[in-house]
Amino acid sequence: MVNAPKTHLLGIAHEIIAAAGFDSQPALPKHTTMKMIMAIVQPDDALRTSQMLNEAGFRVTRMATQGAWLRRENVTLLVGVNDDQVAEALRVLRQTAQRRMTYVNVPGEMTGAYSPQPLEVEVGGATIFVLDVERFERLS
Q1: pLDDT per position as a tens digit, 52-74
Q2: Which residues contact 33 (CB under 8 A, 6 or more apart)?
Q3: Which among 30, 79, 90, 118 is least buried, having the fewest CB atoms inside 10 angstroms?
Q4: Distance between CA atoms of 139 and 17, rounded to whole angstroms?
């Protein structure tokens, strides 16, 4: 991976919005800071996790994604929160993203065999990134 200057994903989105002529006043007062939580969860947990986050008052954006090692579907949830809400959102994620054991067919080149071999692996839980939000705007 190339070392690049720190780039804020939402800062780039703001530049795109401004270039399109939709730029308005900042939605966040100077004293308010926000975080973007990116949580990668298993499809079995995604609906319940989204529902629990909604019930706790969080808005959630859901994206279908795929892991590289097991080549299995997963779901990435995006949750924008104020700094003081991060702990509560993480509590909901810990409560709803469960680990479990399952069997997957691993391609032969990974196991050294000629035919796919089922392998017991632990899946579930969540991989979570908490990112600083440079700017947030809601367009109506």
Answers
A1: 999 999 999 999 887 765 566 88
A2: 82, 83, 132, 133
A3: 30
A4: 10
Question: How far is the C-alpha of 55 from the C-alpha of 64, rounded, in Å?
Answer: 22
- Buried b / exposed e across 73-105, counting CB within 10 Å, b at 16+? ebbbbebbbeeebeeebbebbeebbbeeeeeee
| Rounded alpha-carbon distances, angstroms, from residue 57 to 5, 13, 30, 81, 108 | 34, 24, 23, 10, 46
d(CA 140, CA 128): 29
**Helices vs strands, H then E, count in the chain:** 4, 6
Q: Taking the model in full, what pTM does it have?
A: 0.64
CB of 85 closer than 8 Å to CB of 36: no
The domains located in the chain, with CATH, are 9-17+32-133 (3.30.70.120)
Closest CA to 97 of 76, 119, 70: 76
